[in-house]
Design brief:
Blueprint lengths: L8 E12 L6 E12 L3 E5 L6 H8 L7 E10 L2 E2 L5 H4 L7 E4 L13 H12 L5 H14 L5 H5 L8 H13 L5 E5 L7 H18 L2 E6 L2 H7 L2 E6 L2 E7 H6 L4 H8 L49 E4 L2 E3 L21
Helix pairs in contact: 3-4, 3-6, 4-6, 6-7
This protein binds iron/sulfur cluster.
Length: about 350
């Protein structure tokens, strides 16, 4: 799926705005996000926590936290706007056409329900004609399909009897039970060790290759993105700041923030030293600076950066970046005000 030729759009998010707070001047959490996910494509949605990446994808399924609302925009799925759906219309989409995997399995696995029954319930919710015994058989097959050993016995167990990695596999089995066209995986490997991480990534890859499922991988870890994604979208302070094919973003990142993230990857840290980090912190949504929200952390900032919001402009085939610099310097290191590598 790599390369610049794009598949048919499956989900098109246009000018999405999410906000919180009362009155005519709410706090903007997500500000004008455009994102297209193609059929069978893996998109890595990357950024530090608070950048709005999870909120963006949750809004599509009507799963926004209390107090956060849609302030505008569209999320087109088969030509109709999911943001306008009520709960009843969203139900067949959620868990049916779109599956979701979270970092914390407790968000998806009820501790009082047997693991297999989660899959049975999901299957029968979306296929009323399916008998309980047939659904049970499919649940066992689904657990086997994600590498849960002894799946018939494991299906009868409760979530607390599963290890962290096994719970994550079970959650993926629930999410894939109805062969969704899109899987949203929100930091699915963050709490897991490296070996299990690799296995979970393999499952996502298999879902794409064998079921043709498109995947949005939400993560702060560009290393994960490199392993599995076709395209990358980088978010900062509620906006997309760079997007493009994965090889291009890794080879020629145009935005200083992306370059900082790339330089912060663990393998670049010298053994025994602290992990390098981008200097400073992302701003709180209510305190985002004027102009480019990254300017207080950016060593390359120009005078206009604190005044004018940069818009996404074309940097190559399928590659867009929102930065006033036309061509950043060659090095990928030290593009932030405190130096990327510390
Ligand atoms: Fe933002 Fe300016 Fe730095 Fe580009 S150069 S990231 S516009 S502060």
């Amino acid at each position: 799926m790599s390369g610049t030729r794009r598949p048919e759009p499956l989900l098109e998010i246009r000018d999405l705005r999410l906000e919180t707070g009362p009155g005519p001047d709410p706090v903007r959490l997500v500000d004008g996000v455009d994102l297209t996910i193609g059929a069978g494509e893996v998109l890595g949605l990357v950024g530090e926590s608070g950048s709005g990446k999870s909120l963006t994808m949750r809004s599509v399924l009507g799963l926004l936290p209390t107090g956060v609302r849609v302030g505008g925009g569209e999320a087109l799925w088969d030509g109709s706007d999911l943001l306008a759906y009520d709960e009843k219309r969203l139900r067949p989409v959620r868990g049916g056409e779109v599956g979701m995997v979270f970092q914390d399995p407790s968000q998806a696995l009820d501790p009082l329900m047997r693991v297999g029954d989660h899959i049975v319930e999901t299957l029968r919710l979306h296929d009323r004609g399916l008998s309980r015994s047939a659904a049970r058989e499919r649940a066992v097959a689904a657990l086997a399909g994600v590498g849960v050993p002894d799946p018939a016995r494991r299906a009868r167990q409760y979530p607390h009897e599963f290890s962290g990695g096994m719970k994550q596999r079970a959650m993926i089995a629930v999410a894939l039970a109805n062969r969704p066209r899109l899987l949203i995986a929100d930091e699915p490997t963050t709490a897991l060790d490296v070996t299990i991480q690799a296995q979970i990534l393999d499952l996502l890859r298999t879902a794409r290759d064998e079921l043709g499922t498109a995947v949005v991988l939400i993560t702060h870890d560009l290393g994960l993105v490199a392993e599995i994604s076709d395209r990358v979208a980088v978010m900062y302070a509620g906006r997309i700041v760079e997007t493009g094919p994965v090889e291009r973003i890794f080879r020629e990142p145009a935005h200083p923030y992306t370059r900082g993230l790339l330089a912060s990857r663990p393998h670049l840290a010298a053994r025994g030293t602290d992990l390098p980090a981008i200097g400073g912190q992302p701003p709180a949504p209510a305190q985002r600076p004027s102009g480019c929200a990254f300017h207080p952390r950016c060593a390359l900032a120009l005078p206009e950066c604190s005044v004018q919001v940069p818009t996404l402009t074309i940097r190559g085939a399928g590659h867009l970046a929102a930065c006033h610099l036309e061509a950043p310097p060659e090095t990928t290191a030290d593009t932030t005000s405190e130096g990327v590598l510390r």
